[in-house]
Design brief:
Radius of gyration: 24 Å
Number of strands: 20
Helix content: 25-40%
Bound molecules: aspartic acid, magnesium ion
Oligomer: single chain
Largest sheet: 8 strands, mixed
Low-confidence stretches: none
Number of helices: 13
Length: 413
């Protein structure tokens, strides 16, 4: 007998028909003798609808009241799922975040979980009751309703699994696991049976949207065994999904590279012909940071005759604003010959924990791109990833040739 926490996203509970399907899946696991805790999101689109109602009444709603409104979406789905399971003949009981007592800080709309009281859930589980908990929400020390930020139900699921020391936390979504890359670009992309926690963190931050990044961080901190699975499969299917592991390469695939991530959400800005002297990076990026604009990759050229060029990437939605900020400070805080912007770039990254113990991965990546005549504009590396910025028009080609070069379509021996 195991204790399993399952989390279902908005699409999986998007209609009463789908809720019945979730109930069948939960029942299937319960029948196998497992204790079940089920965390659900609001029905798909519901949180957006609720937040839009508040915005109709005020451009700037009080965050406390916004959370009171937003948290109702999950209250509906926990009740409906409990009703569906009861109708099937199971004992099931729903809890809001406050009823469990998922204690959070009071940072409304982006609260962090501080503690979870598991006593009531334990009692239910011991009596064979299926426990259903509202995702995305908690309660602060004063009893105010709080929410955990968009996509926060993933974090609720992982936090409950940590508090209950569950044997596994299963995140059900509309894909059947984590892939070597997006199958829409590379049809040969392969579902990974395992991926390490660190690789998953990199992939989440590089643009893979399978899991909320905070939930992955939480799982890492509390060593929660996490698995991503599809809720679209038959409820009785025992599809394994992707397991996120902590052990490096123990009973695991021996791939050096696990996946190729990409991101088209960035834009590049180059500040040309700036004086090559101490303080110049700060003079350029200080105001950008002060304006709350996120900078990702940064490259500064070697100086020549006292001048250098300075390039960095920002979120594409913040491109115009960043250019504005730079123009406001140019001439005052720094001199520049020219400021050039390029929105037609993308970032392509290879990720793999095996890079730590293998040399030549970067060279192979660069040669593969060179062979296709793809120019690399920027490079950044960490212990387990190499990212390049290239012209957006080569994105699909780059991902395809890299996937092939690293033989990701093949199951590792
Ligand atoms: N319902 C919330 C949202 O849409 C939380 C979640 O689904 O994870 O962001
Ligand atoms: Mg989600």
């Amino acid at each position: 007998m195991a204790l399993i926490v399952q989390k279902y996203g908005g699409t999986s509970v998007g209609s009463t028909e789908r809720i019945k399907n979730v109930a069948r899946r939960v029942a299937h696991h319960h029948r196998q003798g497992h204790q079940m805790v089920v965390v659900v999101s609001a029905m798909s689109g519901e949180t957006n609808r609720l937040l839009a109602l508040a915005k109709e009444l005020s451009p700037n709603p009080d965050p406390r009241e916004l959370d009171v409104v937003a948290a109702t979406g999950e209250q509906v789905t926990i009740g409906l799922l409990a009703i569906a399971l009861t109708e099937m003949g199971f004992k099931a009981k729903s809890y809001t975040g406050g009823q469990v007592r998922i204690l959070t800080d009071d940072a409304y709309t982006k609260a962090r979980i501080l503690a979870i009281d598991e006593a009531a859930m334990r009692r239910d589980l011991d009596e064979g009751t299926i426990v259903i908990v509202a995702g995305f929400q908690g309660v602060d020390a004063e009893g105010n309703i709080t929410t955990l930020g968009r996509g926060g139900s993933d974090t609720s699921g992982v936090a409950l699994a940590a508090a209950l020391t569950a044997d596994e936390c299963q995140i059900y979504t509309d894909v059947d696991g984590v892939y070597t890359t997006d199958p829409r670009i590379v049809p040969e992309a392969r579902r990974l049976s395992t991926v390490t926690f660190e690789e998953m963190l990199e992939m989440a931050s590089l643009g893979s949207k399978v899991l909320q990044i905070r939930s992955v961080e939480f799982a890492g901190k509390y060593k929660v065994k996490l698995r991503v699975l599809s809720s679209l499969d038959e409820p009785e299917s025992n599809a394994p999904g992707t397991l996120i592991t902590f052990e490096e390469k123990q009973n695991m695939e021996q791939a050096i590279i696990s996946g190729i991530a990409f991101n088209r959400d960035e834009a590049k800005i180059s500040v040309m012909g700036v004086p090559d002297k101490p303080g110049i990076a700060y003079a350029i990026l200080g105001p950008v940071a002060a304006a709350n604009l996120d900078v990702d990759m940064i490259v500064q050229n070697i100086g020549a005759s006292g001048h250098t060029d300075f390039s960095f990437t920002v979120n594409r939605t913040e491109f115009a604003k960043t250019l504005d900020v730079l123009e406001q400070h140019r001439g005052k805080d720094f001199a520049a010959r020219e400021i050039i912007g390029d929105k037609h770039i993308c970032k392509v990254s290879v990720v793999g924990i095996g890079m730590r113990s293998h040399v030549g991965i970067a060279a192979k990546m660069f040669k593969t791109l060179a062979d296709e005549g793809i120019n690399i504009q920027m490079i950044s590396t960490s212990e387990i990833k190499i990212s390049v910025v290239i012209d957006e028009k080569y994105l699909e080609l780059a991902v395809r040739v890299l996937h092939k070069a690293f033989e990701l379509e093949k199951e590792p021996a």
